Amino acid sequence: MNLFFASDLHGSLPATEQMISQYVKSGAKHLILLGDILNHGPRNAIPEGYNPPEVAQLLNQYADQIIAVRGNCDSEVDQMLLSFPMMMDYSWVLLESGQRLFLTHGHTYNSDKRPALRDGDILAHGHTHIPVAEEQNGVVIFNPGSVTIPRNGYSASFGLLRNNRLQVIGFDQSVIKEVTI
């Protein structure tokens, strides 16, 4: 199972176009959006190419491939523009291996405040805009970084799950972080 992860698009059309291009090239069948899809939020500067209606229109073309959760900048108004549900605070995905993948934005549940997880489960979240791919006390913590507003000197990035590896990959195709699951 190949999964593509993206977080914190914040309404930037050029960044979303770049992310979609990487998604299509990856061959993944599912695009997982970990929140903060259309709105830039009050603490962030307006990103380059800020165009939430066009971002929504682009993402809607992939609606049948998207699993999305709500970020702290997402609202019911955003949902009105999108053809896929994105108002859930979290979602579970059961992998072929039997591992559970807990999807959330990261403002409620994160590596410091976890839901009930078992050894081998994966907690995937965004919110911090900082890539993470590591095992912590039997649980894999994964953050694909940010498509639009990367922090701590990292480049814009996305995540891939393939061949039992979770990778954070920069748009230049460099592997930023990686963990085997």
Question: Topology of this structure?
Answer:
Blueprint: E1 3-6, H1 13-26, E2 30-33, H2 52-60, E3 66-68, H3 76-81, E4 90-94, E5 100-104, E6 122-124, E7 132-136, E8 139-143, E9 157-162, E10 165-170, E11 175-180
Parallel strand pairs: 1-2, 2-3, 5-6, 6-8
Antiparallel strand pairs: 1-9, 4-5, 7-8, 9-10, 10-11
Beta-strand proportion: 25-35%
Following the backbone from N to C, one meets helices and strands in this order, namely: EHEHEHEEEEEEEE
The value of Rg in angstroms is 15 Å
Unreliable runs, pLDDT <50, ≥5 residues?
Answer: none
Number of domains: 1
Main sheet overview: 6 strands, mixed
Oligomeric description of these chains: single chain
CATH class category name? Alpha Beta
SS element count, helices? 3
**Average of the residue pLDDT scores:** 96
How far apart are the first and last residues' alpha carbons, in Å?
Answer: 13 Å
**CATH homologous superfamily grouping:** Metallo-dependent phosphatases
The counted number of beta strands is 11
Would you summarize the structure shown here?
The protein contains three helices and eleven strands.
What would you say this structure looks like, in words?
The protein is an alpha/beta fold and 181 residues long. It has a single domain (3-180), classed as 4-Layer Sandwich (Purple Acid Phosphatase, chain A, domain 2), CATH 3.60.21. The protein has 3 helices and 11 strands. The chain has helices at residues 13-26, 52-60, 76-81; strands at 3-6, 30-33, 66-68, 90-94, 100-104, 122-124, 132-136, 139-143, 157-162, 165-170, 175-180. The chain has a 6-stranded mixed sheet, covered by helices on one side. Strands 4-5-6-8-7 form a 5-stranded mixed sheet, with no helix packed on it. Strand 2 (30-33), helix 2 and strand 3 form a beta-alpha-beta unit. Helix 1 (13-26) runs parallel beside helix 2. The longest helix is centred in the first third of the chain and has 14 residues, at 13-26. It is globular, with a radius of gyration of 15 Å. The protein starts with a strand and ends with a strand. Belongs to the metallophosphoesterase superfamily. YfcE family. Keywords: Hydrolase, Metal-binding. Its cofactor is a divalent metal cation. This is Phosphoesterase. InterPro entries: Calcineurin-like_PHP_lpxH, Metallo-depent_PP-like, MPP_YfcE, Phosphodiesterase_MJ0936/Vps29.
